[in-house]
Design goal:
Rossmann fold; elongated; seven-stranded antiparallel beta sheet; 13 helices; about 25% strand; four-stranded antiparallel beta sheet
């Protein structure tokens, strides 16, 4: 779950982290009224992705007329896959220095990682590549938590204008947000030091683990849904993990791993997969809507069905697909690869009811599907 800047900052503020004075707006007139109230401000597109400023999604204005024009321009934009539907009008701040602060999942160490740099306001990826020593990395033992003394020790010597203690306190609060909100990433870039020596989170990126949605309550409603196609929305309504792609080879496979592997083999064979659709042992009961969903994509010119069973029986899954095929009677060519528990019975079912013999090798079935789609 990703959050736009305004929603992420509200969560930071609830945890006691400092944020600028700002007003969320949906129209150019609301933005003009907000600038009348706040004075010189930044108008920011509210989409849950970075680099908005580079494409014109952030504009500085001094008065209501400039705000109205800037807001109208930004609201007409599409940034990434998102149409801009909201704006954050935020009071300009007298900035003295810019820092970078974040807490994220360290996948290699299977633990949280706190990051801090005295060079905020720029792409952290570029800084990490060019000057990795400029980023302070503080690994966290998930069992022990983040010790303030650990943070102070890591920051000492970084020439932070006497605000080591304030930054250490802020990083501790940031870690609490990460932990309590089941976050994968909570990032402030830039974290700014103002002329009055106070710290303020000038931007915020927040991502919460989808798997933790059940225990995050109303925070889920504050997130921004990922943009999806009509077919992806249908798939979600059916309870499928379905992603529409731009290829011509449709795919039904059991389990996410086998599905991804089959997609890779399709690409290796010179084809392009038309979808990701994870369907496992429940294929027997959901094969008809799954098959209908995949074939509703007009780009699909062929279909590969790849089942590999261990605990799930391939004959049961295959019977589900056969019944779906008999119900829908599609006209695209279909190619099967079936291995594992129940494969002999599955082969007999396919031959008896559809007159189709599965390929012995998955690669051959995929190659045939790719050639049929060309």
């Amino acid at each position: 779950m990703d959050f736009v800047e305004y929603a992420g900052k509200q969560i930071l503020a609830e945890a006691g982290l400092p944020i600028p004075q700002g007003i969320y707006c949906r129209t150019a007139e609301e933005a003009a009224a907000a600038v009348d109230r706040l004075g010189p401000s930044a108008i920011k597109a509210q989409v849950p992705i970075g680099k908005r400023g580079k494409v014109g999604g952030i504009k500085l204005v001094d008065d209501a007329d400039a705000a109205r024009a800037a807001a109208a321009s930004i609201l007409s934009m599409q940034i990434g896959e998102y149409d801009v539907a909201g704006l954050l009008v935020e009071q300009k701040a007298p900035i003295r220095r810019e820092f970078y602060a974040a807490v994220m999942n360290d996948m290699s160490a299977c633990s949280p990682l706190v990051l801090f740099s005295a060079e905020g306001g720029m792409d952290i990826e570029e800084l990490a590549d060019a000057r990795p020593e400029a980023i302070c990395r503080i690994p966290v033992d998930i069992e022990q938590g983040l010790a303030r003394s650990q943070v102070v020790a890591a920051l000492t010597g970084m020439q932070l204008d006497g605000c080591v203690d304030a930054i250490a306190d802020l990083l501790a609060r940031l870690y609490d947000v990460y932990l309590e909100r089941d976050a994968e990433l909570v990032e402030i870039n830039p974290l700014v030091l103002l002329e009055d020596d106070s710290l303020v989170a000038l931007d915020c990126k927040l991502r919460i683990d989808d798997a933790a949605a059940y225990r995050q309550g109303d925070y889920v409603a504050r997130s921004t849904p990922e943009p999806c196609s009509t077919l992806e929305a249908r798939g979600a309504d059916l309870g499928f993990k379905f992603i529409e792609l731009d290829g011509e080879v449709g795919l039904l496979a059991n389990g996410a791993g086998l599905t991804m592997t089959t997609m890779d083999v399709i690409s290796h064979a010179g084809g392009r997969p038309a979808n990701f659709l994870e369907i496992g042992g429940e294929a027997y009961t959901k094969a008809t809507p799954a098959l209908e969903l995949v074939l509703s994509n007009p780009r699909v010119k062929s279909l590969i069905v790849n089942f590999c069973g261990a605990f799930a029986r391939t004959d049961v899954m295959t019977e589900g697909v056969i019944e779906a095929w008999e119900t829908l009677n599609p006209q695209v060519p279909v190619f099967f690869s079936i291995h594992g528990t129940g494969e002999d019975e599955a082969v007999e079912l396919l031959q008896a009811r559809l007159g189709i013999t599965p390929y012995d090798r998955m690669e051959d079935a995929v190659q045939a599907a790719v050639e049929a789609a060309q």
